[in-house]
């Protein structure tokens, strides 16, 4: 099969490409390198079964040209990271809505199954933990810029489902919960690569707020294997799935774990949200997936423990730091 991966030079996209190539499929990546990085896919370039186009998928002609020649579409291209979203809200909204519209339109035109990666952010401030796919979305006020990301992704979900209802276009919507692993950059705010880098450099580990807020971290390789299986499962079409790991950990506890696993002497410091993100920021207290729907359909069970996941991130960040000092 030939797969299109939009955003294939990104952190998750590059792992998905690897998994598809390993299963002997061919892969076409389209990426505009806004947050994707050439180094994420450098080891794949030059292979006969791998092709890269540097372009913006929100361009209708680009989307049609790419989608026409493939069997299946993974639409991952998106703005990413809370920091970037707060810093550049216009670009965030425009790329997310425009990109999905162009890709879904092309998929509908050529009748190609499409899997869309949405986000657990869409559950917003819902107090009902764990989150189930059928739950209400409790997104905050537009005066808090953070919520533009969840709103744009939610709109993309509506659009994908509209194509399913309108023409039975096979679409799968996945809501990813804090995906982590090698190649994730801390540049856009993601907590684990930041903590690991801080710990390895002996710098203060910056816990925002009081550190009692919690997340569930899932190894990127568990995530991409679920995505690859879902797109080929007809019963998944027209459906929404949580994808992640349901082990919950407080951010303060994560900082302590990273510190001890790296043997670091870094101090753990608390930074007020206002200082970290500027005024007008709301965090979510807990974010835990209910994975029973995914488990029920494809027998999903994450293989990577949090400890192993942190080890993989530590090894990756060490390699990066060595490269920086050479
Ligand atoms: N966070 C933190 N220190 C950092 C970066 C993030 O304490 O240097 C916190 C952040 O406020 C949030 C959690 O870690 O409560 C996860 O943040 P991330 O941006 O990785 O993902 P989110 O779940 O917010 O999308």
How is this structure best described in words?
By secondary structure, this protein is an alpha/beta fold. It contains 12 helices and 13 strands. The strands form 4 sheets. The protein has a 7-stranded parallel β-sheet, with helices on both faces. It has a two-stranded parallel sheet with strand order 7-10. Strand 1 (2-6), helix 1 (11-22) and strand 2 (26-31) form a beta-alpha-beta unit. Helix 1 (11-22) packs across helix 8, helix 5 runs parallel beside helix 6 and helix 7 packs across helix 12 (306-325). The site of uridine-5'-diphosphate has 13 residues, from helix 7 and strand 8.
Helix and strand arrangement:
Elements: E1 2-6, H1 11-22, E2 26-31, H2 38-41, E3 50-54, H3 60-68, E4 72-75, H4 82-87, H5 89-110, E5 114-119, H6 147-167, E6 171-176, E7 179-180, H7 191-201, E8 205-208, E9 214-216, E10 218-219, H8 220-231, E11 239-243, E12 248-250, H9 251-261, E13 268-271, H10 273-277, H11 292-298, H12 306-325
Parallel strand pairs: 1-2, 1-4, 2-3, 4-5, 5-6, 6-11, 7-10, 8-13
Antiparallel strand pairs: 9-12
This protein binds uridine-5'-diphosphate.
């Amino acid at each position: 099969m030939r797969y299109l991966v939009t955003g294939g030079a990104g952190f998750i996209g590059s792992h998905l490409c690897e998994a598809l190539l390993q299963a002997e499929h061919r892969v076409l990546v389209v990426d505009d390198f806004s947050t994707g990085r050439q180094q994420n896919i450098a080891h794949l370039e030059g292979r006969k079964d791998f092709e890269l186009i540097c372009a913006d998928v929100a361009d209708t002609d680009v989307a049609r040209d790419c989608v026409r020649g493939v069997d299946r579409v993974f639409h991952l291209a998106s703005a990413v990271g809370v920091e970037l979203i707060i810093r550049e809200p216009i670009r965030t909204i425009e790329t997310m809505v425009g990109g999905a519209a162009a890709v879904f339109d092309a998929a509908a035109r050529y009748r190609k199954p499409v899997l869309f990666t949405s986000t657990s952010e869409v559950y917003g401030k819902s107090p009902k933990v764990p989150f189930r796919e059928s739950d209400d979305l409790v997104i905050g006020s537009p005066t808090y810029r953070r919520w533009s990301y969840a709103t744009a992704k939610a709109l993309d979900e509506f659009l994908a489902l509209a194509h399913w209802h309108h023409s039975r276009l096979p679409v799968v919507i996945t809501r990813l919960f804090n995906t982590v692993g090698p190649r994730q950059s801390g540049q856009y705010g993601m907590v684990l690569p930041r903590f690991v880098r801080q710990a390895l450099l002996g710098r203060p580990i910056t816990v925002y707020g009081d550190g009692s807020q919690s997340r569930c971290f899932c190894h990127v390789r568990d995530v991409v294997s679920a995505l690859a299986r879902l797109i080929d499962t007809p019963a998944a079409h027209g459906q929404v799935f949580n994808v992640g790991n349901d082990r919950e950990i407080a951010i303060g506890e994560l900082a302590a774990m990273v510190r001890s696993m790296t043997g670091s002497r870094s101090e753990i410091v608390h930074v007020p949200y206002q200082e970290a993100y500027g005024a007008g920021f709301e965090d979510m207290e807990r974010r835990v997936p209910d994975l029973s729907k995914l488990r029920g359909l494809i027998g999903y069970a994450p293989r990577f423990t949090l400890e192993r996941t942190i080890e993989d991130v530590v090894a990756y960040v060490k390699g990066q730091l060595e490269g920086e000092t050479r």
